[in-house]
Amino acid sequence: MTENFWLDSNVTADQRFSSYDYLTCAKDVGCAGEAVTRYLSRHPTDCDGDGRITCKDFGLTHLLGHARCHEPERRRDAEDTVFVTRFVQCLLDTLGLLSAGDSLEQDLDARCRLHSPGRIPPSVRRAVPAVTRQQE
Fold it and tell me: What is the pTM for the complete model shown?
């Protein structure tokens, strides 16, 4: 999370984090997770231009920002990052859980460790069924 990302998230509007500065928030899993959730909620972006906002778009928005995730060169560069490798594995694991009939709520946090371990933004949780529909 960059400082601009943190500022744009407006996470300090939440009473729990109102006194946090950028570095304090970035080091606190609860605050950082809430900042990501708020940022993604404020900027739902169809990064790949397929007409849908899916987990892939949330991941690209988180990594590149809502203004830059549309740029094909930036998306190509992102494919070589550790973040994208982990994110894709998380999506694959989640699809496996869904197809196996396991409870997404029980297992998603344990299997998916995005950028901030231990906290999967609710906006990403809601997007997972869209990814499942794409695979059918």
Answer: 0.62
